[in-house]
Amino acid sequence: MTIAPVLSAADSKQRIADTTHELLVEADGVPDPRHQELLDEVVILNAPVARSIASRYRSKGVDPDDLEQVAYLGLVKAANGYRLDAATAFLSYAVPTIRGELKRYFRDCAWTVRPPRRVQEMQGSIAAAEPELIQRLGHVPTDEETAAALGTDAEEVAEATSIRGCFTTLSLDAPGSVDGGTNLLDTVADSEDGYDLVENVHTLTPAVATLGDRDKRILELRFRNGLTQEEIGHELGVSQMQVSRLLRNILEKLRSSLASTH
Description:
Elements: H1 9-28, H2 34-45, H3 47-55, H4 64-81, H5 90-108, H6 117-137, H7 143-150, H8 154-161, H9 184-187, H10 193-209, H11 213-224, H12 229-236, H13 240-260
Helix pairs in contact: 1-2, 2-4, 3-4, 3-5, 4-5, 6-7, 6-8, 7-8, 10-13, 12-13
Family: Belongs to the sigma-70 factor family.
Organism: Kribbella antiqua
GO molecular function, one term: sigma factor activity
């Protein structure tokens, strides 16, 4: 029986790096579809790296699956954009590409309320640096400690950390009070048609007051009593055609009167 040797983490990474390079070399010399098949193998082989980078951006209000998809997109871009004549290894090119894709996603797609781009970019830098600082310091870094690590001012860090809630919105089903007896939806004011009615009446009253008695009577029969034009004609002793013309003239007068007051 042959026992396969157990590879160390370093050996495993080196083997992945060597295989990746071999795939990229082969892909460089063949056309599609084989070219793309080889690049797909590169992506699959290095997918754990993309997942690892995406995991560092969790707990920021974005679904983990979305983060992984964005990281995979960055890996795909890296596989397609890497040049064999570059002096750097593939992962040295891929890791910044994946991080850049994640930062762009947070900057452009993940904000509920959109702060200035300067603040968004600072938020991304803080999110990337914070895990290392926590591990090194043994506690959540202060604004001053984070600013020192990033080479910026504590005021900028404080401004960026204050908008972390912009990544998420509260569900309307979330508790609206401490006792949990209501949810946020219960505290949201409902639209009230009565307000619109009051405003419309207040606006129309001066215009209607300028109309003659017959015009007011026609408006009352049509819009208050709900009569048809034919029924109004019977009521006034005129034809339906005349009622239609009268209504059109009345409404035109009202529109003109309202337009002149605005």
